Amino acid sequence: MINTLSLQDTAELIREALSSRRFIVMICMCEAQYIGRARSFLEKGERLIVIKEDTSFLIHRPTELEPVNWQPPPNHISISLGENCVILTVRRVRKPERVVVKIYSFKGFFSDKLSDNGSFHMHLSEKEISEILRKHPELIEDGFRIVSTEFREKAGIIDVLGVDAKGRRTIVEIKKDKAGKDAVKQVLRYVREAGTGVRAILLSPNITPEAEKMLRKNGLEFKKISMLELSRIITYEEHSESSMSRFLRGE
Q1: Strand pairing partners for 5?
Q2: Is the torsion defined by CA of 192, 197, 198, 199 positive or negative?
Q3: pLDDT tens readout for residues 80-118
Q4: Non-local CB neighbours of 180 within 8 Å, separated by 6+ positions
Q5: CATH 3.40.1350.10 intervals, the chain
Q6: In the chain, which residues fall in CATH 2.70.180.20?
C-alpha cells in the first residue's frame, strides 16, 4: 500500500505515528547526515529505519549487525517535506546532536503499539561480570581503577579490588542475582579483614530491602549493575572482534 501513496501522504502517516508514540519501521531509499561531536554523510541507498516508542532511532544497512546511524533516547523527531523527499530530523534532547534523513521513496511502512512485559534474564557468572568490569571499570563508577580481580584474603576471595577517583582502596563484591543479607555479611567480613579506611561496594542487578538496610547501617554501599548493558557490551565486542578478524583475513 505504501508504494501507492504520495510523499505528502506518507509524511502524514509518519507524523501521526510519531504523535501517538508508536513503533515505526520503514524500508526506504534514503540518505542521512549526522551533525554533532563529528560529522558524517551516508549516501543514498535502500535501508531499514526503526523508530522505537521511546524515540530510539536506528538506520540499518542490508548487511552487518550494528546500525550505521543511531540516536539514543530521548529525541525530538520532526517531519517535513523537501524537494522530492520527506525530511526526517532526529534531535537529541540533552545533547547538540542530530541526524537529518532525506527519504526519496518507500518500499514498506509499519507502525503500531507493541506489548512487551517480559523480563530480561542474562545468564553470566560472577567471574564473567568481573572480566567485563576489568575492561570497563567505568561501569562501577567514573574514575575507578581496578588493581586486581579475585584477590585472595583470609576472609575469602574479593571479586574486585580497586581504587576510586579519590584514591580510596575499594572492595567490590559482585552478585549476579538479587543480593540478600548473606551477601552483605560476606562484604562485612572482607571489610573487617581489610581494616579501617577501606570503602566497600556491593554490586548486583538488585537488592532486598533487608540487605539494603543492613548495608546502610554498616556504612557500606550498593550499586546496581545492568545485565542488559553487560549484554550489549558483550555483543558489541564480539561483533567488533569478528569484523576485525574478517578484515585481517581480507574477507
Answers
A1: none
A2: positive
A3: 999 999 999 999 998 999 999 999 999 999 999 999 988
A4: 207, 208, 210, 211
A5: 126-230
A6: 2-112
Question: What DSSP string describes 85-152?
Answer: EEEEEEEESSSS-EEEEEEEEEEEEEEE-----PPP-----HHHHHHHHHH-GGGT-TT-EEEEEEEE
Supply the CATH classification number for the domain 126-230.
Answer: 3.40.1350.10
Cβ(73)–Cβ(84) under 8 Å? no
For 126, other C-beta atoms within 10 Å of its C-beta total 16
What the block records as the C-alpha cell of 236 is 558489541
What the block records as the C-alpha cell of 160 is: 574486585
The residues, any chain, with a CB within 8 Å of residue 49's CB and separated by 6 or more, are 24, 25, 26, 27, 28, 30, 57, 58, 59, 60, 88, 101, 103
Confirm if 70 and 58 have CB atoms less than 8 A apart.
Answer: yes
Q: Which tens digit of pLDDT belongs to each residue from 40-52? A: 999 999 999 999 9
Would you say 151 and 194 are in contact if contact means Cβ atoms under 8 Å apart?
no
Nearest to 29 by CA among 123, 140, 106, 111: 106
Contact 204, 176 (CB under 8 A): yes
Quick one: which of 59, 47, 50, 95 has its CA closest to 75?
Answer: 95
pLDDT at 157 over 50: yes
The domain 2-112 having CATH identifier 2.70.180.20: the answer here is yes
